[in-house]
Every structure is written in C-alpha cells, then in structure tokens.
Hints:
Shape: globular
CATH class: Alpha Beta
Distance between the termini: 24 Å
Order of helices and strands: EHEHEEHEEEEH
Strand content: 15-25%
Mean pLDDT: 91
Low-confidence stretches: none
Number of strands: 8
CATH topology: Rossmann fold
CATH architecture: 3-Layer(aba) Sandwich
Amino acid sequence: MDIPIVSIVGKSDSGKTTLLEKIISELVKRGWRVATIKHNLHGFDIDHEGKDSWRHKKAGASTTVVYSPRQLALIQDIDKDYTFADIRDNYIRNTDIILTEGYKDNPFPKIEVFRKEMRRDLLFKKKDNLLAVAADTKLNIDVPCFDINDAKGIADLIENQFLKNKPKENPV
C-alpha cells in the first residue's frame, strides 16, 4: 500500500512551514512516523566545497551517501524534476504519512494556508483536491476551515482521513 501524501500549500510567507512543524510534532506525539518532502524550485546545496562528499561528486560520482550512526543523506544527480510519488516510491520507507511543502500543482490532497492580510483568493478549490484550509479568518468554503494555529484539529483530520486503519509503530 502506498504511503499517503498530504501537501501543505499556500503563498510565500503565509506560514506553511510553521504550521507544518506543528502538525509534524502533533502526529509524532501520537505515535505516527512522519516523513516530509520540501520542493525548492530554485535548487539547494547541502554539499560544501572541500568536504569529502563534495570532492566525490566533483570527481564524477553520480550518487554520494553520507551517513553516521544517526543520520543519512543522499546526494544524487537527477535528470528531471521528480514528482512526490517518485520520491516516495524510490526513497521513503518506514513511515506512515508524508507531508509536503512546495510544488503546489500536484495531485495529492492539499491543506491551504490562508492569511487575510495577503489580500488574495484561495489558490485551490475542493475540485483541486483541497482537503481543508488553515486560516487566520473565518471563510465560507466547501471544505473544513481550521484556525491557522489549530495543529491538533488538522492532525485529527489527517489521522481520520489517512491513518485510522494503519497500526502505529510506537503508540503513545
């Protein structure tokens, strides 16, 4: 069975990362194993000049793994912009749910973060696989609307929709 994916979406500086942190913490507290995927259209660099792994890549390695007894990082050249499903299917194991941030145009259920002061409309509707909205104001919409700080309520929604029939690894 595929690991479910739920995307936290919204405009830049709407509070996606802050909300995502709270949801992760709440789900982990409940005993769920959570993985995240952050899409960055502009690229990123975790390998630094002069480090052994950087030297391996510079010498031509297409994949480099750096690990310790507690962490593992994979640095791999890719030939296309992977989908969240590609990343899930190729790299993520031993987790109950994947929460994503970034890359709004994906087919997975979405929770949109909305702030009134940004003076804009919602990016998505129910037909776009919008599951819920986390907002700093009341909205009259056809999906559940949570207070932007209600991580427990949003975690309840995620748990009921995607995790209720999965056994927990370490029940709390």
